Task: structure prediction
Amino acid sequence: MSDCVFCKIASKEAPAEIIHETERVISFLDINPINFGHTLVIPKGHFKKFHEIPDEINQELIIVLSKVTKAITEALEPHGYNIFTNNGRFAGQAIMHCHFHIVPRYFNDGLKFRPTSKSYKKNEMKQFGDLIREKLKN
Ligand code: 5GP
Ligand code: ZN
Result:
């Protein structure tokens, strides 16, 4: 038996406020919401990070993300929303079962994204582009 809490939620061994469910994806309310209605969307299978999720599951996942986001928008009428996924401990991932956060946002709600940003030096942007493009070749 898995000791991953999100696997347990997916298999109904642990309770959660479930919002939506398909064959391979489940959505439920975050237990410590940034704002009320903060929802998590996860593959039912245990994948630690986003890039480990197979394409066919990601297809289902993105459709569910869209559907649940529309529902949150209509139900709560937030001023905006953020969708994000933290991958790896140093990116702030606390639960090592990949999940997407949908966070309803409101004027002056205090949440700040991108507190810092960097500047590329001359040619550096192309170098980073080349490095990543190389891995997309096949
Ligand atoms: P992370 O930092 O890994 O991106 O986010 C993990 C999220 O999972 C946090 O927002 C946290 O509040 C939520 N969470 C942790 N444990 C549980 C749980 O048992 N049930 C629910 N519904 N959410 C959880
Ligand atoms: Zn898991």
